[in-house]
Specification:
Blueprint: H1 14-17, H2 21-26, E1 32-35, E2 44-50, E3 63-69, E4 77-81, E5 84-86, E6 89-95, E7 102-109, E8 112-113, E9 121-124, H3 136-145, H4 148-153, H5 159-172, H6 177-191, H7 193-210, H8 215-227, H9 231-244, H10 249-260, H11 265-278, H12 284-302, H13 310-317, H14 322-339, H15 344-363, H16 375-399, H17 403-416, H18 422-435, H19 438-450, H20 456-470, H21 473-496, E10 502-503, E11 508-510, E12 516-518, E13 526-532, H22 537-552, E14 559-565, H23 573-586, E15 593-595, H24 605-609, E16 617-621, E17 626-632, H25 638-652
Parallel strand pairs: 13-14, 14-15
Antiparallel strand pairs: 1-2, 2-6, 3-4, 3-7, 5-6, 7-8, 7-9, 10-17, 11-12, 13-16, 16-17
Helix pairs in contact: 3-5, 5-6, 6-7, 7-8, 8-9, 10-11, 11-12, 12-14, 14-15, 14-16, 15-16, 16-17, 16-18, 17-18, 18-19, 18-20, 19-20, 19-21, 20-21, 21-25, 22-25
Length: about 650
């Protein structure tokens, strides 16, 4: 859910230059080998992968893919690999396509990835002289600093390392600096904030003196002047840009913004039509921006507080892309089914369309495959979307008491997800209770408890069914407990594999009551740290589950919870305090909220020290003062969140 020192600017020292890609090759020699060692575009690369000492050692249905990445030109591709294997050894080959600057090998089964101890399996592409191709270090620097590598390959996000790698290409390839400038200066400003300002400003001033700049270059200059609070210089750059490019992108962006602000939606649609007729799309970006205007129109109408007319909704929907229409319709159908008992029929109508569209895309896609997906990834993504839409449809049908159809579509969603998602399983359970025999319900739902994938509805349905079958609540509870113990054992086994043992960074922050809270003073307790912000939607949806967990442990003196408010954007601390306290009070949360503080560079200190890339992020600190678990992302399922967090707390306390 799923962002974001002080030393003199100089050429990287030798130790930083050692971050070159060749070093990473040696770091995975035991589990992954390949030839040639310095592969070029067009070369056939043969590889051998040994899973014995990897997280996949006990897995038997491994999936392999190779990513060809080029952030210099933003040209990427991914292929599936089906290697031959003998025991733990897998062998295969692939050919390096044009434009590739970096190769990343991926091995996984389900959600389990081999991340090579957070280094990934990453190989540079070389030129004919045996040197790393231009853009290889820039691409790797981008991967390890922008969250891309963490998401796709499990590599550790490290902005300092990213900057050092990008600097290597920056210094060696001055002709490519225009392509690297945005990312390079962004990292330079983050890592060496005070030293970066004069370097960046000098570069901007040098660019201005050339007088032959693109619109994007003027925009970059203006943005950096704004960042460094040089408003007059920023305004001058903007003025020159507008004079030189009167019909440029800035003009179109301004016109689109004006159109999107038209309150009368019929008039807005006419304005969009006229704009597109006057400015026909020249590329994919233009098409995307035009579609976004129609999507905004559709969303605005769909989310207004008055009653929504399906006919008018469809009128607006015909203007946007089918995939945007499907996404908006699915969200609206879900909301109506849960919050508007007068809109169940309309919810079913919208959801029916999304399911048909998603099934068509699953079988014969008309939308273009993303560059960063292999054929199998693309199929799995479409299948996941189809499952999500069938889940919504199952819920709408259940509200209309069409239990047979509801069960059918809930089963599709459950099977696609291999019965691994508690929310989806709940949809199946509620329909199953209306139609299936007691024996069949017990047969279908019991494994969900044992596999720890049952939601609250599933548990309630199974217990009620066991009571009917046994005639005894006590006997039903006994059976449920036995199943739950099996599920808990499995969950604990999986959780034990994720346990960390890293020193927690101490902090001393003021809470909402004005009292100082220091982590070191809490040693001897299990401490749950939750980084959040008032603007963070995923943070907020997880808070009911966090409150339930606090309530569960309220009488445990050896467990403490702190919620560190960070990454806020209010103009003053007074405004920040007001927003935070009002939010906490209005929801009646009993959170101990601490205010993260900014350092001299304007960066929030504690979230930076904990290397948090996105919020919400939770850390569970053991009684010994060491980080035991890290959990990223929000969860709207309060019971599931409480159960998972409780397991971490108990394990961290042992």
């Amino acid at each position: 859910m799923i962002r974001f020192m002080k030393f003199n600017y100089m050429k990287p020292k030798k130790i930083l230059l050692a971050l070159s890609l060749i070093v990473s090759i040696a770091s995975f020699a035991q589990s992954f080998t390949y030839t040639p060692l310095k592969p070029k575009v067009g070369d056939k690369v043969s590889f051998t992968y040994n899973k014995s000492a990897t997280p996949l050692s006990q897995k038997n249905n491994l999936e392999f893919a190779v990513f060809f990445i080029n952030f210099l030109d933003n040209k990427h591709s991914v292929i599936d690999i089906i290697p031959s294997n003998k025991g733990n050894i897998y062998s295969g080959s692939f050919i390096i396509p044009a434009n590739a600057t970096l190769i990343a090998f991926s091995a996984k089964e389900g959600e389990v990835k081999d991340d090579n101890k957070k280094n990934g399996y990453i190989i540079a592409v070389y030129d004919k002289d045996g040197k790393e191709i231009i853009g290889a270090n820039y691409t790797l620097g981008s991967i390890v600093s922008n969250g891309f590598g963490e998401f796709y390959f499990g590599t550790e996000n490290n902005v300092e390392k990213g900057l050092a790698l990008i600097e290597k290409d920056w210094e060696a390839n001055s002709s490519s600096r225009s392509k690297m400038m945005g990312q390079y200066y962004n990292l330079l400003n983050r890592v060496k904030k005070k030293d970066a300002e004069p370097i960046i400003l000098k570069s901007m001033e040098t660019m201005e003196t050339t007088g032959n700049l693109t619109e994007n270059e003027y925009g970059l200059i203006s943005s950096y002047y704004t960042r460094f609070k040089l408003t007059d210089k920023s305004a001058t750059a903007q003025k020159i840009m507008k004079e030189k490019y009167p019909n440029g992108s800035w003009s179109k962006n301004a016109e689109r913004a004006t159109i999107n602000g038209i309150a009368d939606l019929d008039k807005r649609m006419i304005a969009i039509d006229e704009y597109i007729a006057k400015n026909p799309a020249k590329d994919d970006m233009d098409n995307a921006m035009n579609s976004r205007m129609y999507s905004s129109l559709l969303s605005t109408y769909a989310n207004n507080k008055a009653e929504v007319s399906i006919d008018k909704l469809e009128k607006y929907a015909t203007k946007t892309t089918p995939e945007n229409k499907a996404s908006i319709y699915n969200n609206l159908a879900w909301t109506w089914a849960y919050t508007k008992d007068t809109m169940y029929s309309q919810s079913e109508q919208l959801s029916s369309w999304t399911v048909k569209w998603a099934k068509q895309q699953l079988d014969a896609p008309t939308i273009v495959k993303p560059d960063l997906m292999s054929d199998k990834m693309w199929y799995d993504s479409r299948k996941s979307t189809y499952a999500m839409y069938t889940d919504t449809y199952a819920n709408a049908l259940f509200k209309l008491r069409d239990y047979s159809s509801s069960l059918k579509y809930a089963e599709i969603g459950g099977e696609i997800n291999k019965w691994g998602k508690p929310d989806y399983n709940d949809r199946y359970a509620q329909a199953a209770e209306k139609l299936l025999s007691n024996e069949k319900i017990i047969e279908k739902l019991s494994p969900m408890i044992a596999e720890n994938t049952a939601g609250k509805i599933t548990k309630d349905v199974l217990k009620n069914t066991l009571v009917k079958q046994t005639g005894s609540t006590a006997e039903a509870d006994k059976k449920m407990t036995a199943l739950a113990e099996a599920g808990n054992m499995k969950a604990k086994t999986e959780l034990a594999k994720k346990i960390m043992n890293e020193e927690a960074v101490d902090f001393n922050l003021k809470n909402m009551q004005g009292n100082n809270v220091r982590l070191a003073d809490l040693k001897g307790k299990v401490v749950v740290i939750d980084f959040w912000a008032t603007w963070c939607g995923p943070c907020k949806v997880s808070f009911p589950g966090m409150q339930k967990t606090i309530d569960k442990y309220k009488n445990r003196s050896d467990v403490a919870f702190v919620f560190i408010d960070t990454w806020e954007n209010q103009d003053t601390q007074e405004k920040r305090t007001k927003e935070v306290t009002e939010f906490i009070a209005s929801n009646k949360y009993t959170f101990n909220v601490l205010y993260d503080e900014k350092d001299e560079d304007g960066e929030y200190k504690v979230v930076k020290k904990y290397k948090v890339d996105g919020i919400p992020t939770k850390f569970i600190i053991g009684k010994d003062g060491k980080v035991k678990f890290k959990s990223v992302g929000g969860d709207a399922n309060a019971d599931k969140l409480m159960t998972e967090l409780s397991e971490m707390i108990e394990m961290a306390g042992n």
